[in-house]
Amino acid sequence: EGGFGIDPPVWPTVAIVVPVYNEGNHVLQTAASFEALDYPRDRLQVVFIDDLSTDDTFEHLTTVTKTYPWMKVIQNEKNVGKRIGIKNAVLKTHSDLIMSVDSDVIVDKSALRILVRHLYSTGVDAAGGCVFVSNADTNWLTRMQAVKYWIGYQFLKNVENAFSHIMCLSGCLTIYRRAALLAVDSDVEKRSFLGDEVKYGEDRFLTRKLVERGYKTRLCFEAKCFTKAPANFSGYVSQQLRWRRS
Fold first, then answer.
1. Which candidate, 66, 48, 45, places its Cα nearest to that of 57?
2. How crowded is residue 89: how many other Cβ atoms within 10 Å of its Cβ?
3. pLDDT digits over 163-190, tens only?
4. Under 8 Å CB-to-CB from 180, ≥6 apart: which residues?
């Protein structure tokens, strides 16, 4: 199964927090991957936070709670963005660890167990997993992105890992100690640039705030998750512009 170190004497409680906005039926696959996780069920909870989706996402989330009654869905009163959604969910849960997962991601069944091991064996405060492209075989564009992801994780993040200071832990799959998230709670309360509220680049912002306060962040190469890459050029450009803003 791989992973870093040995099992902790008692598996800590984990809340998986999933911010959702206009994901449609993708949430069904994400939920199914949580159901398959190799982790003690009595130590695990799942919370989906719907940020007032304007499509049929909430209907699919209702299906999730009927199919898997142990999972919860919260709907925000207004659109607040990903980071505030996660922040609010953290304050409503009482688990030892918080795992952030994007709503279009499939988590490998051993990923959570491996991340918890990594966290406790290294003593760091947050650890991210590796993201792989699930639709790499679709066309040349998705193949190119698969290579780009691989280089980004295996080479660029490896350098940062040597110092236990990964500067951007992806929302796709990252586990945090509760105390670390609460320490930066006020930092993520309000973000603005030249007077305008900012909702993008939230993964990078949160990681930077953790590092600024002296918390250690690492990447765990054995913990895997899978995401779909844009298969057409307009989708790819839109994604990259969103990322570059951050």
1. 48
2. 22
3. 777 888 888 899 999 999 888 877 766 6
4. 125, 126, 210, 215
